[in-house]
Design goal:
The complex is a heterodimer of chains A (about 220) and B (about 425). Chain A has about 220 residues and is mainly alpha-helical. Chain A contains 9 helices and no strands. The longest helix of chain A has 17 residues. Chain B is mainly α. Among the domains of chain B are: about 140 residues, Cytochrome c-like domain (Cytochrome Bc1 Complex, Chain D, domain 2), CATH 1.10.760; about 50 residues, no CATH class. The longest helix of chain B is centred in the middle third of the chain and has 57 residues. The chains are: A mainly alpha (about 220), B mainly alpha (about 425). The interface between A and B is large, with 63 and 70 residues.
Chain lengths: ~220, ~425
């Protein structure tokens, strides 16, 4: 009798433990849930707080946004916020001269022709080709899906999205660096802005690589 | 004018010469409404036309679809060649001159096409010849590109699945063979017994052996049998129990349903969108980032706009509320992990830890994400020191005392405080 009981208990316990394994919508048993669901704010974490008077200690974080409760701590920066990492005084790498600022904020998104005329690439190319290599790396990540690996407009997404030009053909081959930079920043025609994905410095590196593709090199 | 814009919006409406004639009749200058003659059917001209079209027109025009500008199918029936050449070269001038067809175009699309005065007349004829050829017998280009991707993916699918499939098949065949062999042996023995029973001249001992019956009840009841069965049972229970206990807190296989059934297989696999395009932080920060809705919109402003799932993105943008994705990979607070460090500096591929994400319809946690799993990799992996001046001295120092390559454990990859603090 005792033996049978032991067996039944064993099977039961095994079954219970089996249910602890993760799969599908079940994350499995957590040993210390407080460790998994942080009290401190982690980036991109969903916050569901039931207390009414709870507010984020950071006064600039509009946790209750427009009077309604929001449940995630991913926030858009205040309009006009300048990324510290791009300020040359912080990084110490001086790409920009006084008349050639790295941070372009004064040009309106409709001023593509002006940008094409007045902007020049403030990021110098180096002899070892590191900058160009970085530009290529970024290009392959952020542009190639539509524009194709060699800028021929033959990316697989581009085939679905339609309207992707060949960099090396027609008047596209002669577009200036400033034009390319402005288009990455604000979009043009069917292309939308990519400024949230690439910092100005990175955009200028991509411009270097795109200018190479415009010449038909790859 | 309404007639013109209707024709424009539904290019297929102008089915034949009659449609174009009707159009011509509506336009105040009937001579301009005549179908454009002078288009070439020469293949070389058509090929050059395609080339010029791809280089200069494709980003705004398609033959059968409205893209940025109108669809071009049968445009040569709607307007005559002289009008078309003039318009393509100087659209703004034509519109400003008050040409009713051009003005209707401008009203519909609300923007000027840039001047294409660098094109020669015969180049424009070549483009239009290609457009005519595409209208009459369209080459299917976009379809196969996507379809080819799917085909390739599924072929790879069956390839990767092949390895374990063959193994299973071998095991099944072997098991089948064993059963067959057992059956044959049983058959043989019964046949032999039957044959021997016909023999009369057996000694008493032999007959006993021959007519012996197995007492199964006694076998099952025996101490030895019970002992073996209990041992196997307890061992199994023990194994499952330990494994389950060890598995507490491990979320491998967790594949939650997301608010929008985003398929990595489609986006990263079939369409080859780089992981970094959406997970922008992976080379720059601790967290890889869940893309904000504006990144979805870079494509989905035009692709699959009517899908109810895509419209959830529009709703999120409209309400200015985030899409509530469910977190899949979650390290407890006690452990520090930095994506930038592993991807940018270490040069690891995403698949290293996240599994074959390009095949996942629903993302699941592929790796254990336990400490043992981290440590194991830190013991095995060489430091990606190539071209990184930071490591030069370390590599030199390490090489002076060891013949093994510099591993992550040699630069503190096993120290507690590297990840726990």
């Amino acid at each position: 009798m005792l033996k049978k009981l032991v067996h039944i208990l064993g099977i039961g316990a095994t079954g219970l433990l089996w249910a602890c394994a993760a799969g599908g919508d079940n994350p499995g048993t957590e040993y210390a849930p407080q460790m998994y669901h942080s009290f401190a704010y982690e980036p991109l974490v969903m916050i569901v707080d039931s207390t009414d008077n709870y507010a984020n200690a950071l006064p600039y974080n509009d946790y209750f946004g427009k009077g309604t409760r929001r449940y995630i701590n991913m926030r858009q920066p205040v309009a006009g916020t300048v990324k510290r990492q791009n300020a040359t005084s912080v990084t110490g790498t001086v790409f920009a001269s006084k008349d050639q600022p790295l941070l372009i904020y004064e040009l309106h998104k409709d001023s593509v022709d002006l940008a094409a005329q007045i902007l020049q690439n403030p990021v110098p190319l180096d002899s070892t080709g590191v900058v160009l290599e970085e530009g290529k790396h970024l290009y392959l990540a952020y542009c190639a899906a539509c524009h194709g690996n060699n800028g021929k407009g033959d990316g697989k997404v581009g085939a679905m999205y339609k309207g992707v030009p060949n960099y090396a053909a027609g008047r596209y081959a002669t577009l200036s660096a400033g034009h390319v930079f402005h288009v990455i920043t604000h979009g043009k025609g069917r292309m939308w802005s990519h400024k949230s994905q690439l910092s100005p410095e990175e955009r200028w590196k991509v411009v270097h690589y795109v200018q190479k593709l415009q010449k038909g090199e790859s | 004018m309404l007639w013109c814009s209707l024709l424009l919006a539904v290019p297929a409406f102008a089915q034949d010469g009659d449609g174009a004639d009707g159009d011509g009749g509506a336009a105040p200058a009937p001579a301009q409404g005549a179908p454009a003659g002078g288009l070439s059917t020469d293949e070389a001209v058509i090929a050059s036309g395609k080339e010029i079209f791809d280089a200069n027109c494709k980003q705004c025009h398609a033959v059968n679809e409205k893209v940025v500008g109108p669809a071009l199918a049968k445009v040569y029936d709607r307007r005559d060649l002289k009008w078309l050449i003039n318009f393509i070269k100087y659209p703004q001038k034509v519109i400003e001159s008050g040409d009713p067809y051009a003005v209707a175009l401008y009203k519909e699309y609300n923007q000027f096409m840039p001047n294409h005065d660098f094109l020669k007349d015969d180049q424009i004829v070549a483009i239009l010849s290609w457009v005519k050829k595409e209208t009459d017998n369209p080459t299917i280009t976009a379809g196969p590109a996507g379809g080819g991707g799917t085909g390739g993916a599924s072929a790879e699918d069956s390839n990767t699945g092949g390895g374990s499939g063959v193994l299973t098949a071998v095991v099944v065949v072997l098991a089948g063979l064993l059963v067959v062999v057992l059956a044959v042996l049983a058959l043989l023995s019964s046949v032999l017994v039957k044959y021997l029973q016909k023999e009369k001249n057996f000694s008493e001992e032999d007959r006993e052996v021959l007519e012996q019956k197995v007492n199964w009840g006694k076998v099952f009841g025996s101490q030895a049998f019970l002992g073996i069965v209990s041992f196997i049972f307890l061992a199994l229970v023990g194994k499952v129990t330990t494994e389950s206990l060890i598995g507490v807190g491990i979320q491998q296989g967790y594949a939650p349903t997301q608010p929008i059934p985003f398929s990595h297989k489609l986006h990263a696999g079939q369409y080859e969108i780089d992981c970094k395009y959406c997970h922008t932080g992976v080379e720059r920060a601790k967290s890889a980032n869940i893309p904000s809705a504006n990144i979805c919109m870079n494509c989905h402003n035009a692709i699959k706009t009517t899908s109810p799932d895509i419209q959830k993105i529009y709703a999120a943008l409209e309400k200015d509320e985030p899409i509530q994705w469910v977190r899949v990979h979650n390290l407890p607070d006690l452990a520090y992990f930095n994506h930038q460090q592993h991807v940018k500096v270490g040069g690891l591929e995403c698949e290293n830890c996240h599994g074959n994400i390009k095949e996942m319809e629903v993302v699941q946690q592929a790796s254990l994400l336990t400490m043992g799993w981290c440590i194991d990799c830190h013991r095995k992996t060489d430091v990606n020191a190539k071209g990184n001046a930071y490591y030069d001295n370390l590599v030199q120092l390490h090489n002076s005392s060891s013949k093994q390559p510099l591993k992550v454990e040699d630069i503190g990859g096993l120290e507690c405080s590297k990840c726990h603090y």
